[in-house]
Design goal:
The complex is a heterodimer. By secondary structure, chain A is an all-beta fold. Helices cover 0% and strands 50% of the residues of chain A. Chain A has no helices and eleven strands. In chain A, strands 2, 4, 5, 6, 9, 10 and 11 form a seven-stranded mixed sheet that branches. Chain A has a four-stranded antiparallel sheet with strand order 1-3-8-7, with no helix packed on it. In chain A, a hairpin with a 6-residue loop joins strand 4 and strand 5. Chain B is mainly β. Helix content of chain B is 0%, strand content 52%. In chain B, the strands form two sheets. In chain B, strands 2, 4, 5, 9, 10 and 11 form a six-stranded mixed sheet that branches. Chain B has a five-stranded antiparallel sheet with strand order 1-3-8-7-6, with no helix packed on it. The termini of chain B are far apart. The chains are: A mainly beta, B mainly beta. Chains A and B meet through strand 10 of A and strand 5, strand 9 and strand 10 of B.
Chain lengths: 114, 113
Amino acid sequence: DSGVTQTPKHLITATGQRVTLRCSPRSGDLSVYWYQQSLDQGLQFLIQYYNGEERAKGNILERFSAQQFPDLHSELNLSSLELGDSALYFCASSVVSGGGGELFFGEGSRLTVL
Amino acid sequence: QQQVKQSPQSLIVQKGGISIINCAYENTAFDYFPWYQQFPGKGPALLIAIRPDVSEKKEGRFTISFNKSAKQFSLHIMDSQPGDSATYFCAASRMDSNYQLIWGAGTKLIIKP
């Protein structure tokens, strides 16, 4: 158990809809990262927050947004969903910001868009 | 400059054999090279990591070999077991607050009993 909690574990929705994925980082971790992993694909970095502030942006679509709240949990909002958005969405947390720290991943939220 | 190229994409090894996964990078500023292991249905987890001041790091059956001049690093799994079957990701970064991990594409490893 990594200590990172993601909800929901599974989500099925229709094209055009909006969903929110939630992540609770490990206790004490200030950084939260969101990744997208399509079927049998690699990890695509979406966005990172550090102590409530956006720190880095990756290949995140304009239809997607995220935020980190004062209690350090984070939400990833996906809107105007398309079939191609079906994927596993991982949240990871770390103590530090940036590439030198170990990332602790949650078990992911599997999104299916029909 | 920011890419990390990982090979092979998939690998089948007999139980007891040696599994070798290779990664190459371009950015000489990278100074942190981790490997993550991902089992089906789970998130990736840090397996082992190396800094460029050493050429090899070993943890149990897992070894990272690092060749700074060639800008390559590799993961060796000795005495591979069916329980090692997973997807392995290499990555590279800098020990710097502004750098993100740059990930390889992943290698799906299957260990045949």
